[in-house]
What does this fold into?
Amino acid sequence: MCGRARLSSDVSEIKLVFSIPPECPTPNVPANWNAAPTGDLPVVRYDPKAGQRSLDVMRWGLVPFYVADFRDCKPMINARVETVATNRAFRDSFKKRRCLVVADGFYEWRHEGKKKLPHVIQRADGRPFGLAGIWDRWKGVLHGKQERIETCAVITRNPTAEVAAVHDRMPLVIDTKDHEAWLDPKTDVAMLHDILDHRYVKDWIVTPIETMPASSRKRQMALFA
It folds into this structure.
């Protein structure tokens, strides 16, 4: 699974890497070395009306549109690539509402006896990348107010050789050349499966770290060594 991520890049670099027009509105995306479920994550989407990509912020943990009470649904942070196209909670989003969840690293833990040893996994160049994501929009009454809440999930798969030494699953990362096809709601299902099954990013640097705060409220760089 993917349950912790890192985003240390600034917004200007994110816009450059993901080809987002500089004039597009910029949400508040502070550096976060410990992004966790139910927190906000930056995501890239394609806006068909504007004909361009947008940078938005969503809550990590997908809640399907059909859920009657937002509080009764356990947020789903991951969707398995093996079932994302058929699972009731994900299939509509997979067809129509795909996104790139922005990060420049993610964390996994290797078990040694009773110990859990944290590792950070990143690209060799340290630049941000796009996790394969799906999103949904829940509408309803929450705490006495009418709400529209957008949530997302990260698609996971079996690990590459480097990551397998640490964990048995990993987030699936879309190669830059496939960003356009992944975001386009008109891309056919066969192409989507080809991207997910064969053309995902496979080269990673896995590095052990000595400390990893248990609390997701601790997000500063100095706490990670």
In short: The chain has one domain: 5-208. Helices lie at 11-17, 91-96, 161-164, 179-183, 189-197. The chain has a mean pLDDT of 92.
